[in-house]
Amino acid sequence: MSVNRKKFLTISVNSKGKRQVDLNTPLDDTDFDKRIKVQVEVEDVVTTEEDRDCSDIDLVDKTVETQLKRVTWTFPSVTPHWISLMMAFFCGAAGEPTASGGKQLHPLTRSVSDDLPATGFVDCFEDNVATAEKYSGNKVESISIQIPRRKNVTMTVVTVGRFTTDMIADFELPECENLPALKGYQCKLLINGVDYTSLLWQCGLTLNNNMPTGEDAFPNSGGTDIEVLERGDQPSYSIAPQLLVRKGHTLHTAAANRTKVPVVVQLGLDAGERVVLTFPNVYLELNTKWRQFVGELNQYSTLIDATPMKDAVLKTPLKADAYLDQTEQLLLDGTEV
Fold it and tell me: I need a labelling partner for 328 at 20 to 30 A (CA). Which of 122, 198, 243, 334 fits?
């Protein structure tokens, strides 16, 4: 196992949310139409079988059994558009957009099938196109979003994909898109229908598909590259809001009593592009270290652990509605190579 950290560099991606037709068919080079700046961490996950001598003392050989790449993208700033794209690949299903308030409403839901859409990307340094490396068969394993009170909203996306990559000799770099920073104060937090945005100190969301990467994810033909990438049997979701409320406040009492309530997180302003994450059935409880004093003013805050649970109507713990300028449906098939 090895980790290769490539600090902030530009990766080339598809800005419309196009997916591969299948795991083994990469997107065409022409589908990579935008470059964005992220921090990339590539982890080579390799398992080997060791062969020792007859005395079972010294190694005489090693054989690769399984191999995959886990790639982490850290966005120092992010927009509702890119959050929407990552959420589409995480959830697995995107409906046809419809006009809504000057934007196009893209409904994103957890796919009925555990199979998830695959995508790819190209990474290279701007001054050395000869190093362009094309990744394919990547599926979103997890998304973490941090919403501070005033600073940049950040996002970390972890993908799992095929180990084998391709070097592109004459890759044509697409236009670079500088992502205007979405700020924490441009977001909303509603708990049980009450807007707590003005009391928000920070909030973290972690969504994980818990994708299996054990033996049964690899071919029984003896191949070493991962073959099956799908949502695990027990995906997990968590929300960690920290609010400037004291013991005795309605919200503090609800968490102390372990109440189930609906929670809505909106990323983006009402009039602009935005993503609305709806969790209809969330179990609230106080963090074990719930009372904390924050900031230079040493303000009293309450840290809550919120766990989204299955909703009787949705049949899943969450849904996402993306209000975008984009008219093209997300998760359409890309150009076949």
Answer: 122
Is 332 within the bounds of a domain? Answer: no
Task: Name the domain count of the chain.
Answer: 1
The predicted-structure confidence for 153-176, as pLDDT tens digits, reads as follows 999 999 999 898 988 878 888 888
Asked whether residue 41 is domain-assigned, the answer is yes
- Which of 122, 157, 93, 164 has its CA nearest to residue 27? 122
> Which SS3 state, helix, strand or coil, does residue 198 take?
helix
pTM over 0.85: yes
In a domain, 30, yes or no: yes
Q: Where are the beta strands (DSSP E) in 259-309?
A: 260-267, 274-294, 299-308
Burial class (CB in 10 A: 0-12, 13-18, 19+), 46: middle
Give the single-character DSSP code of 332: -
Residue 288 is part of which domain span?
A: 2-48+62-324
Contact between residue 33 and residue 174 where contact means Cβ atoms under 8 Å apart: yes
310 in Cβ contact with 236 (< 8 Å) = no
CA distances from 215 to 136, 157, 189, 212, 226 (A): 21, 24, 41, 9, 9
Tell me, what's the pLDDT at 173?
A: 84
Angle at 69 between CA 66 and CA 70, to 5 degrees: 125
> Tell me: the pLDDT tens digits for 75-116?
999 999 999 999 999 999 999 999 998 999 999 999 999 999
Task: Give the model's pLDDT for residue 336.
Answer: 53
Encode pLDDT of 23-37 as tens digits.
889 999 999 999 998
Contacts of 199 (CB under 8 A, 6+ apart): 243, 244, 245
Q: Is 16 exposed, middle or buried (0-12, 13-18, 19+ CB in 10 A)?
A: middle
